[in-house]
Amino acid sequence: MVYKLPLRQTQGLMRSISKLMQLEVLVPDFSTLSRRGRNLVLPVRPKTKRTDPIHLAVDSTGLKIFGVGEWLRKKHTTGANRKKWRKLHLGLDLTSGEIICADLTKDNVGDPSALPCLLDQVEVPVAHFLADGAYDGAPTSGLLQERFGETVEIIIPPPRNAIPSPQSASELSIRDRHIAEIQNRGRMAWQSSSGYNQRSRIETQIGCWKTVIGPKLKARYFENQQVEVKIGVTILNKMTELGRPVFEQIA
Length: 251
Description:
Blueprint: H1 7-20, H2 30-36, E1 54-65, H3 68-76, E2 85-93, E3 99-106, H4 111-119, E4 126-130, H5 138-148, E5 153-155, H6 174-185, H7 187-194, H8 200-213, E6 216-217, H9 222-243
Parallel strand pairs: 1-4, 1-6, 4-5
Antiparallel strand pairs: 1-2, 2-3
């Protein structure tokens, strides 16, 4: 996936390597690799030993499916079907830089609807949750407080026409406090004081995905595409692990 090789080229590469190394290793053909893709079991990620709450940022992006429709249009200049997309949802631990939750859905699934499956993969407490305005709403706030307790700090920008809730006169919710601060100090000042600017790191991670893994999915079937996403997450986490320093106290 890193070198963006089709399965047929991968088959030839591995057969050449086994021949050069004089190894009697059977390399399946590309069609067998494709069929077995949906049943591929990746190594289980070791459970983190951290017990302190993390800062979790989530975002989503579209991944293109290069199917027969576009092939017909490019090769034969004929009418093509509507472009199909998949939505990639990622959750990033802002402290370690590790992708701790990921999911692939069809393009008709909204971000708040995909959030429960993402949170099911989070095994540590969450102190701060950062997301863009697509996650704004009572269902998201209620879900986060149910999963991580009432103390979780939810940092989601309200829309420009947002108004305080009817209960704001007696008790301010997290969203009401955000609305009041934006009205008093301005949106840019709120982004800086609330830590919302840290959400740019999940956008950077998505940019790394588009650069390293690619902006489109190679697998044809949805189950294979989900496995493809898991492989991509493993690759980026391995790169992050190799590229981050480790500090140990020696005295």
